[in-house]
Write a structure and sequence with these properties.
The protein has two domains: 164 residues, Aspartate Aminotransferase, domain 1; 248 residues, 3-Layer(aba) Sandwich (Aspartate Aminotransferase, domain 2). By secondary structure, the chain is of the alpha/beta class. The model has no long low-confidence stretch (mean pLDDT 97). The chain is built from 16 helices and eleven strands. The N and C termini lie far apart (65 Å). The strands form two sheets. It has a seven-stranded mixed beta sheet, sandwiched between helices. It has a four-stranded antiparallel beta sheet with strand order 8-9-11-10. Bound molecules: pyridoxal-5'-phosphate. Pyridoxal-5'-phosphate binds next to helix 6.
């Protein structure tokens, strides 16, 4: 007879090795090069082309994890990770993930795991309070902000029942006006993808111009909406961003809310990265105006030490979201369905991981003030870095520093901007090849700009100082 799973003895031995490895890793993730120093195909070349027919030992498998896979891993848990938005798989979060996997709960219905559903509701309500939001928000956890924004725009469509999109679809509907979604030029590409996926059409995702600090211009939004209405198009939704991906800029949410309300459009706020800054008491105003939004996304898996994936969706109109997605086949009918939250009613996916466990563990293990203190330190380190850039001849800030993000550029006097682009790319490549720091780039006004984003729990001032010295050396070389 074949064994059902690993024997208890095998499990014990393998768990000891895995936990020892995790302990060593989280104790010092900085001993690995932060950016994987491999060329495309190098990892695949070391993996057998076909699966093993016979069972292999966990020791053999874990040996290959270390030998074959680790060299091809980019270490998001490295304190020198400053690219994109830095994140953390914190110790409490990692332990929660182990327990989540052990339970293997599918929280599609309340009944299929009451604790997963009720903890999700409670942990999100804690998060709501931490963000300084009032009552009246319903929360649900999704995998990513991209999916949350997709669901929010689907709800926006359902908020106009006359369109009858749920039943009749959008194709072959000459009776319908063209639907329009507005977001700033600096909004995340997930807004475009949502418009594409929902059949609204990419060209109907209107990119509204920004001001000199990369914030949506309310006057430009108002005129775009007015022009669309005059042309018989229907303003469906506005997406305001609190903390844009390139620069961390914050759209004027209150002014935008006023205009959206006037146009009868749904207001979705994308605060995926910067939303958690509102946990810091002196940064409470980060989410000013959001009280008037219909939906909001904040990603604890970004800047709140929760392992990916965990995106928090909040909406003041859960009834509309539910109307968009609730569909209960016979085999999912439960006796208590009218009294409980069944998470499957609030999105596309049926199955759901028990993600709330890690959010709950992270909040409890650090405490609200502990989380705030860590975020505050990140912002202080970013401010220090920005001041070094400002003081250094030949370097400039490319946007106002926001939260824990600094956009800057090496711009030696007299060097034409195109040549400076080449120089900045070379600086970036050199720094990233060092294995000590990893930064990414964006383009602002057509020019290549470097971004330093602080967000890893283990990043200390010395790591930021090291990145700065690597940058200056790379520019001189
Ligand atoms: C990171 C980011 C996203 C996308 O987040 P995912 O969870 O990876 O989908 C969306 N919007 C903004 C502003 C972001 O910074």
């Amino acid at each position: 007879m074949i064994p059902l799973d690993l024997s208890n003895r095998q499990l014990h031995a393998a768990l000891e090795r895995v936990t020892a490895w995790i302990e060593g890793y989280l104790g010092d993730p900085g001993r690995f090069p932060v950016l994987a120093q491999v060329s495309p195909g190098a990892v695949a070349a070391r993996l057998p082309a076909s699966p093993p027919d016979e069972a292999e030992s966990m020791d053999a498998i874990l040996d290959d994890f270390e030998r074959v896979l680790l060299p091809g891993v980019t270490h998001w848990n490295h304190p020198g990770f400053f690219a994109y938005f830095a994140t953390t798989g914190s110790a409490p979060g990692v332990m929660a993930e182990m327990l989540t996997a052990a339970l293997n709960v599918n929280a599609m219905l309340w009944k299929t795991s009451p604790a997963a559903t009720e903890l999700e509701q409670r942990a999100l309500d804690w998060l709501r309070q931490m963000l300084g939001l009032g009552t009246g928000w319903f929360g649900v956890i999704n995998d990513t902000a991209s999916i949350t924004t997709l669901l929010a725009l689907a709800a926006a469509r359902e908020a106009k029942p006359d369109l009858q999109v749920r039943v009749r679809g959008l194709a072959g509907r000459p009776d319908l006006p063209v639907l329009r979604v507005y977001a700033s030029e600096q909004a995340h590409s997930s807004v475009d993808k949502a418009a594409i996926t929902l059949g609204i059409g990419h060209e109907n995702c209107v990119r509204v111009p920004v001001d000199e600090a990369f914030r949506m211009r309310p006057d430009a939004l108002a005129s775009a909406i007015a022009a669309d209405r005059a042309a018989g198009r229907l303003p469906l939704a506005v997406v305001a961003t609190v903390g844009t991906t390139s620069t961390g800029s914050v759209d004027p949410v209150s002014a935008i809310a006023e205009i959206s309300a006037g146009a009868g459009a749904w207001l979705h706020v994308d605060a995926s990265y910067a939303g958690t800054a509102a946990i810091v008491p002196e940064c409470r105003d980060t989410l000013a105006g959001v009280e008037r939004a219909d939906s909001l996304v904040v990603n604890p898996h970004k800047w709140m030490f929760t392992p990916i994936d965990l995106s928090a969706m909040f909406t003041r109109r859960p009834d509309v979201l539910k109307r968009a997605f609730s569909l209960v086949p016979d085999y999912l009918v439960t006796a208590e369905q009218d009294e409980v939250v069944n998470l499957m009613d609030y999105g596309v996916q049926l199955g759901r991981r028990f993600r709330a466990l890690k959010l709950w563990m992270v909040i409890r293990a650090f405490g609200v003030s502990g989380i705030a203190e860590r975020l505050r330190n990140h912002m202080a380190m970013a401010r220090d870095f920005a001041s070094w850039v400002e003081r250094e001849p030949g370097w400039v800030l490319a946007a106002p520093p926001m939260f824990s993000l600094v956009c800057f550029r090496c711009a030696p006097a007299g060097l034409p901007p195109e040549d400076a682009d080449v120089l900045n790319q070379r600086v970036l490549d050199r720094v990233n090849a060092s294995g000590r720091a990893y930064l990414s780039h964006t383009r602002l006004h057509g020019r290549l700009v470097l971004r330093l984003a602080i967000g890893n729990l283990r990043t200390e001032p010395r790591h930021v100082a090291d990145a700065w010295s690597l940058l200056r050396d790379a520019a001189r070389a």
